[in-house]
């Protein structure tokens, strides 16, 4: 664990590697993220797999996932992205205690070019499972970036802008 400056912001950096493959390849062995934000975690999904019952992250099959766990210290908004990762990423956040019983909170594919970004409201004390996978099983170096807007609602900041759907209602005329 150390710190670096990314785009003028000091971030805590942690690297997780094991000799016999990545421990966080499976949901049950996900790496715990400290509650100090902002921070950047560096990892890889090389030689990882998709486990039985694992959801399709961002609606895509994937095939090389890595898992983290983060407990929200306060109510607010968390912003998570994979900017600076070197492959086409899928990013999802869930609640739930087992890989076969997860509720998706947010997911993304290709919001930042080939990288992903999610932003969602969090509740103090709630545990969130975060998965990074590769589109069509792509692998590479992961840069998982987390930041927060505690005490402010989602969409309260330009960097945290929420995507909106645009369309016509049944009563609209052209």
Summarize the structure.
This protein is mostly beta strands. Helices cover 0% and strands 41% of the residues.
Structural descriptors:
about 170 residues, mainly beta, six-stranded mixed sheet, five-stranded mixed sheet, about 0% helix
Helical amount among residues, as a percent range? under 10%
Secondary-structure element order, N to C: EEEEEEEEEEE
From the N-terminal CA to the C-terminal CA, the straight-line distance is 58 Å
Largest sheet: 6 strands, mixed
Determine Rg (CA atoms, Å).
16 Å
Structural class: mainly beta
Please report the total strand number as a whole number.
11
Query: Which word captures the global form?
Result: globular
| Contiguous helical run count | 0
Strands of the widest sheet, in order across it, are 1-2-4-11-6-9
Return the average pLDDT rounded to an integer. 84
Unreliable stretches covering 5 or more consecutive residues:
15-20
Sheet-strand content, in percent, reads: 35-45%
């Amino acid at each position: 664990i150390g710190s670096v400056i990314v785009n003028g912001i000091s971030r805590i950096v942690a690297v997780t590697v094991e000799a016999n493959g990545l421990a966080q390849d499976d949901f049950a062995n996900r790496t715990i993220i400290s509650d100090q934000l902002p921070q950047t975690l560096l990892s890889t999904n090389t030689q990882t797999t998709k486990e039985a019952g694992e959801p399709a992250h961002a609606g895509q099959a994937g095939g090389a996932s890595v898992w983290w766990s983060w407990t929200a210290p306060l109510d607010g908004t968390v912003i998570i992205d994979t900017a600076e990762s070197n492959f086409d990423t899928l990013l999802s956040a869930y609640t739930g205690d087992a890989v076969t019983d997860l509720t998706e909170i947010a997911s993304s594919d290709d919001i930042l070019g080939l990288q992903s970004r999610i932003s969602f409201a969090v509740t103090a004390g709630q545990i969130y499972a975060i998965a990074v996978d590769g589109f069509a099983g792509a692998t590479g170096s992961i840069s998982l970036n987390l930041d927060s807007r505690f005490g402010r609602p989602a969409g309260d900041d330009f960097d945290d802008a929420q995507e909106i759907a645009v369309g016509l209602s049944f009563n609209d005329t052209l």
